[in-house]
Structures are given as structure tokens and as C-alpha cells.
Description:
By secondary structure, this protein is mostly beta strands. Helix content is 0%, strand content 51%. The N and C termini lie far apart (40 Å).
Amino acid sequence: QVQLVESGGGLVQAGGSLRLSCAASGRTPSNYALGWFRQAPGKDREFVAAIIWSSGITYYTGPVKGRFTISRDNAKNMVYLQMNSLQPDDTAVYYCAADVDARTVVRTREYQYEYWGQGTQVIVSS
């Protein structure tokens, strides 16, 4: 079992920045990946970014490349999502998720992530 708790969401103006945090606890395998997904109102949940815990390999979805950065703190069992140049289209509930079978490849499908946090709301005003 892996427990995930997100924090750091809020309201920001377009062009601003936010940093989301996700605390991981429980039985975390060394070869797992932690990722961020988001779900905007009326839309399906979509992959944003993920990082392989052991190697630090990252992967981003196209719309956030160059604006968002995912990172980890191994000592604290934390993963972060630094979001810059935020736009109204980034408004969504952001979820942290764990893929315990990731090994060396970042996977991007929702069903591949077994554990989920409760989500944190991000609202970007224009």
C-alpha cells in the first residue's frame, strides 16, 4: 500500500506560478514512478508529468513542456510539480499517483497508476 497526500493548490492569476507537493508513504518500491494527473471540469483525467523514483527520468505531456517541472526529494519521500506561466487552461484538480510497476519507463495511462491522492485544486484566473 502506498499513501499519497497532495498540497499546494490554490488560486493564481494567469502567468503566475504554483508548486504542488506530494508526500508518499507506506510500502514504496524502489522502481516505482510518481506522476501528476489533472482533471478539468467536464473533462477526463489526463496525464501531466511523471518521474521514475530511482533514476530521476521524467516525462511531460506536450502542453506543459517548458512550463512545468517535476522533481523529487528522496530523503523526504516527496515529489513536486513546479508550475510556471500558468494559463486558465491549466485549471483543474491535480492528482498525485503512483505506478508501482514503472521500472525504467514512465507510463502515462491512468489505469497504470494503482495509488492516488485525494487531489488539490488549481484555479488560474485570466
